[in-house]
Amino acid sequence: MAHSLADVLRQRGHRITPQREMILDAIANHGEHITAEEVLDVVHIRSQAVNIATIYRTLDFLAQEGLVTRTSFENGRLIYTTHRHGPHIHLVCRSCQQVFEISSDKLADLAGIIAAETGFHIDMHHGSLAGWCAECHIQAATLHTDT
User: Fold this and answer.
1) CATH code at 141?
2) What global pTM score does this model have?
3) What tens digit of pLDDT does each residue of 7-66 get?
4) Which of residues 31, 65, 84 is at a domain's end?
5) Are 55 and 35 within 8 A, CB to CB?
6) 3-state DSSP assignment of residue 105
């Protein structure tokens, strides 16, 4: 996978520096989601010469090129993944921070309604929605009925 990402960049006229290659390897071989800090940990196994600023610049570049997707959670945490992981939406509990994944197909009808009404087209490949998991919702409901 890393080689195919590098090949795409080369075809688009971009240089593949040793740092970019290590970062591409880290993302491609990780499997699913990865944070910039996790990329740094993986890269540091091979070289201490890469810093977190380089990781973030490269991840931003890869996202602009459409080779990775970046999802921001409400707590400011950013995660990255390749398109190989497939389209999905993260459901993030505002209370316990637990993350669930659902197929973005489940929200396709809603995305169509929003596009028709507002002209806004939601990126359904990878995103996040905040709310409350079943357990935290029950706990919150119990607290509100006890007062």
Assistant:
1) 3.30.1490.190
2) 0.68
3) 999 999 999 999 999 998 898 887 678 889 999 999 999 999 899 999 999 999 998 988
4) 84
5) no
6) helix
